[in-house]
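Inputs:
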Amino acid sequence: MITTEAKIKEQVEKIGVVCDKDGFPPLAGRLLGFLMLAEPPHKTFDEMVDFLQASKSAVSNTLKFLEAQKMVDYITFAGDRKRYFRMNVEGWGQVVGQRLDFLVNMQEKVKEVLAIRTTDHPEFNQGLHNIYLLYQTFIDELPRIIQKWEEAKKKHT
Amino acid sequence: MITTEAKIKEQVEKIGVVCDKDGFPPLAGRLLGFLMLAEPPHKTFDEMVDFLQASKSAVSNTLKFLEAQKMVDYITFAGDRKRYFRMNVEGWGQVVGQRLDFLVNMQEKVKEVLAIRTTDHPEFNQGLHNIYLLYQTFIDELPRIIQKWEEAKKKHT
DNA sequence: TTATTAGTTCTGCAAAAAAAGAACTAAAAA
DNA sequence: TTTTTAGTTCTTTTTTTGCAGAACTAATAA
């Protein structure tokens, strides 16, 4: 399979758009896309600056962001002081898990609200309680999903 | 249970922060919080302007946003031309479902990337494939989660 | 020691997002 | 018909975010 530079650029932009829509900072999705498509899958700071046609500061800050999200990390090689950044494919379970933190936080707030509300509007309170249960179900089922994933990984190797 | 205005304001702000962290527009989380705590659980436009100490335009646009997310809707009463906005507790399954659209979009991008990549870095490709499987597992398990939720709701009524 | 490399941090500036306030609209009321 | 109500939309201002480029830092190399 020969993939042209143009094709890669196009795909990087598409990944950028998906991430953009999800609220990522503008460069973050494209940088992630670049690393996703990179051959070899680890690239230097300068290669990213070059490919993304962005400033060093923009790349540095975007890397900081993606590292905080555990989406990107880097490796080094003896006798070479460059860092080789790569998509952190091993840590992706954690990445997705982190995204679900919102559920936990929001569930807590709903719980607090239920403790505060009067009993004057039982139907609404019930609806709110159901939302609480929805979050609870997600939280409860998460380990099962991870387990299913582990099984799926085994099958596919 | 008597809950002071101050206590409610505080809780609204806390809900605002949780939503903020998740990328909501600034007013959206607070407006949602206000409706979550509202007694009765439906409030007029003016009550929201008043409570949130924001302009009518800010409230109008925020309502538009929350309605698009299916987080808020409104009811009307005969002989009263006001709209009574409320948290759409019934539609929350859809709200959470919508948030998972990112998984579907991202999975598709990962799939496309796998189709483009060479076989030169099988370990990385495997990692990427595992991410694909993670998304797939979530997508597969979603109906089961909804079903579990339905069961939980029955138990708690 | 001085110079180079591999980034990071700081200083503005430009673009985008959010908010305010005014102008507007559609329906109902007077 | 005019007025009021309940919002929406438009215009301007303010705030926030993102970026570039320069200055800086820490480590290596010459």
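The radius of gyration of chain B is 21 Å. Flag for discussion at group meeting.
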